[in-house]
Structure formats: structure tokens, C-alpha cells
Amino acid sequence: MKQARGFTLVELMISLAIFALLLTLSYQSVNLLLDAGRQVAEPQAELQQLQRAVLLIERDMRQLAVLRPMNTSVGQRENNSISQSETLGVLLEFTRGGNPDVAWQNRESGLMRSGLQRVRYVLEDGKLLRQTWNLVDHLDTDAPVSLVLLDGVEGEPQFRFLAARGGEFKDDLPKERATLIAVEFSLKHRRFGEVTRIFTVYL
């Protein structure tokens, strides 16, 4: 009768070495897959952010409203529909319609909100911000609600305007806002490069 033979120390060491090698190779493979997943996920997230930003800008441009001059704490502004500010970082400021009345539960008390909304686009530290006020005639000291539309913006985004009687887009707004028929928006993104979109305006 033969006696059962166990593993020698050398055989155990070789087995452990092979197991450690296989474990290292498996870890590296999993790590490569995770890195590849991250490399795919990051551009997708940035693309989704860009698409959302363009969609929100398009909605704003299509809801532009031509209104009376705006009342402020220091008098009346020249225009309450759409204006270009000389303030550093402020790209465009305007009033839009279609602001939903989220206080529907208070309607019985007469606390309905206006369907108009004041909006401003601002560039701050490479981020495109959308700032809003629920009151069109807000005080200059009233803090807006800010939403980061897009980060990774290089340089300064630009709005250009097409008037009904004009044949090309221009940097300055037409004197008569009612003649505005389209807005061109362009920017440079760190990943996607130059991005330009044209939005139809229904005034």
C-alpha cells in the first residue's frame, strides 16, 4: 500500500508564485477596463452637459418677450426685452415668457407668479452661468439664482444677431428689437472645440 504524498515546500512556493502572477494580471486587466470606462464616461458627461446648455439657450431665445422699459431701484433701464451689458463677464440679459407658475397650490390665496422671467448669461472662471430672477422688475441688489450650464469654456462665448432687414449676423442688437429674427451663439470648448448654433426668435 502506497502512502499519500504531500506537496513539498518548493512546489508550494511555485504554486503561490503562479497564483500571485495570475492575480496581478487579473487586477491589471480589471484596472484597464475601469480606466477605459472612465475615459468613455467623461466625454459622454461633457457632451450631455453641452447638449443641455444648448437646449436651454434655445428655449430662452424662443421665449424672448418685447416689453416696456424695466423699472429698477435707480429708475428705468433702456430696454426690458433683450440687452447687451458692458459689465465684465455678462454676455446677454433679457426677459422671457413661459415661466411656469410653480406656486399652483397657492392660487386660491392669489399668490400666482408672473409668467415672465428675467435671465442673464454670465461667464465666470470658464463656466457659463444662467442667472434668473422671478421678478422682472427686481432690485439691483437682489441676488439671482445661478445655474452652471457648461464648464470647460475657453475664451468668451459670443451672441450675434440677425435682423429681419439685415442679410448677415451682427455683433450688436438691432435698434428695434421686434426686427430680431435669429440669434447665433458660439463658444470654444476645451474638448469639443468651436461650437456654433443658430436659434430662431419668435417676437
Automatic annotation (TrEMBL):
Pfam family for this entry, one: T2SSJ
GO biological process: protein secretion by the type II secretion system
PROSITE patterns: PROKAR_NTER_METHYL (PS00409)
Keywords per UniProt: Cell inner membrane, Cell membrane, Membrane, Methylation, Transmembrane, Transmembrane helix
Subcellular location: Cell inner membrane
Membrane-topology annotation of the record: Single-pass membrane protein
Superkingdom as given in the UniProt entry: Bacteria
UniProt-listed InterPro entries: N_methyl_site, Pilin-like, T2SS_protein-GspJ, T2SS_protein_J
One GO CC term on file: plasma membrane
Family recorded in the similarity comment: Belongs to the GSP J family.
UniProt protein name: Type II secretion system protein J
Gene (name only): gspJ
